[in-house]
Amino acid sequence: MKAWEKNFRKVEPYTPGEQPVFADMVKLNTNENPYPPSPKVAQAFALLGNQAGKCRLYPDFKAEVLVGALSDYYGLEKNQVFVGVGSDDVLSVAFLTFFNSDKPILFPDITYSFYDVWAQVYAIPYERPALDENFRIRREDYYRENGGIVIANPNAPTSIAEGLEFIEDIVRHNTESVVVVDEAYVDFGAQSALPLLEKYENLLVVQTFSKSRSMAGMRIGYAMGHPGLIQAMNDVKYSINSYTMNYPSLVLGTAAVEDEAYFKECCEKIIKTREWAREVLGRMGFSCLESSANFLFAAHGSVPAKKIFTALRERGIFVRYFDKPRIENYLRITVGTREQMERLFYALSEILR
Amino acid sequence: MKAWEKNFRKVEPYTPGEQPVFADMVKLNTNENPYPPSPKVAQAFALLGNQAGKCRLYPDFKAEVLVGALSDYYGLEKNQVFVGVGSDDVLSVAFLTFFNSDKPILFPDITYSFYDVWAQVYAIPYERPALDENFRIRREDYYRENGGIVIANPNAPTSIAEGLEFIEDIVRHNTESVVVVDEAYVDFGAQSALPLLEKYENLLVVQTFSKSRSMAGMRIGYAMGHPGLIQAMNDVKYSINSYTMNYPSLVLGTAAVEDEAYFKECCEKIIKTREWAREVLGRMGFSCLESSANFLFAAHGSVPAKKIFTALRERGIFVRYFDKPRIENYLRITVGTREQMERLFYALSEILR
After folding, report:
1. A336, A347, B155, B314: which has the highest count of C-beta atoms within 10 A?
2. Whole-structure pTM over 0.80, yes or no?
3. How many Cβ atoms sit within 10 Å of the Cβ of residue B10?
């Protein structure tokens, strides 16, 4: 070890999900949207091309155009909206801003795998109450003293959503800490906690452009909450990197928000494909949890998930497999286009034969 | 104070530099480049518009296309280059990764004002040896025990650059900690520390697209160093936000690096304008420090800086004024186009009359 290496921050190196690039592959492993972003986004690109000279200037660090579009869309004030470089950036800033207690923050044992990574890198104590035997969150687990709560709703990788009453119950039991509800997948059929913002000043709702708005490549996420929470997040954000949202993300993100009809149409298509796919998988011997997301969490009755995962990979079809306790027999399958799902089913029919 | 607010991270809210937007203003306050980015960047935008569908996919988290272009340009290996969302992001990750000692990190009392902000937000002890009476760094101040060193070269807001031998002397005296050389302004006539990378495994050189490459709006910065340093930074970065560089920044950043001729031409124009402007300011009663950056640091012999700053503002001309000890009589003036500088000089001639 070199002398200076003793001062390096110790982290468990996190490996992001695989981003394979093969011609003719079927990519159902990172919950991207199979449809392109709104045609208005393509038009906005053209506008950017004509104004490339603007790139020489720093972007608006308040991101007002995008914050304005989002607050209009959700019926909030501008000071209730925070934007960041994907919801990972938003969540990371939330962890850093809100979770500075000696008491542990709480989130389920099976949930978005980045939560423990942030807790570790920022030295935040945490505990992970176990989901019940049906992979449901037990609300009573969140009734005790804590330094903060993080609930993904719908949860990932389980795809299960809890109702608004359930979320409100958890928020109501936690008046001394910030409750973060991560709604990355909410647009695919779950209830958002947004209506609770009027009643609870300690609730932060986080969403993203990466799934329902088909813009994972643009890296745009946002949080909505009481102005006191948003201000605290901006104070921390401005102390790390004031100008995070680049010029194209501001312009294209705004264009996407303004096309509500296209957005809803894409979400409905995905929901329809999901329900059909769930039925087909059922006939093939899979049990899928009930999904409110753009993915299915599926276990086969007799063939191990790892075996199916590997066999699909060999056929150029990528799904997600987690080699972790309790879920090692499940596959997380992104809902693609109908054509992509048909290719998946054909491959599965060969593999399971 | 609300119950949950006691767990908020305490930060000194940092206020980013003013971004005024007036028709016909002269903006010389944030060291942006007065020239647009390379025409190849505008062309690349058009390409992006035709491929807007790609935005639905996550970007390459390794940013290989951009890392490849930069490593080719500087004659390095890919594993010697780290990219981030502006050099602020890169420096912030470096602070978080390398500076975890109980000993203080060292940087000058007058330098880029974000260094203390990061040290505070990440709870890193720090000391700030004073620049000498000519605003030069005293190398001996950096010969003692420390948890890390950060030197901006050229320094900001002084505009003064030290030579390669000076920087090497500091690196040579610090074999137990990481030495970060922040070269945001290096392309305007200073010597880069890059040739030292072969000899020193604890040296990190940070640069940006925001100044010499006319792309502040794209938020692209990078660090170059030994693969061990770059790996450690990526480990930390992947633990915070794996996908930081969005699709346009990867494509447009690469296009910019590939147009060396345009880049050099812009830098030369700015250097030429700077030297002429320094002479004119001298005739108007200013003393300007010798600049190797795209800005001048100027004090007038009889009129207080704050008064000039305010009077310029009233005329729609924005320069930077720091109300801080030792430099409260200086203005930091970005070198714009010749036309912008002429408007500045005309306004100054009125103000100083």
Report:
1. B155
2. yes
3. 10
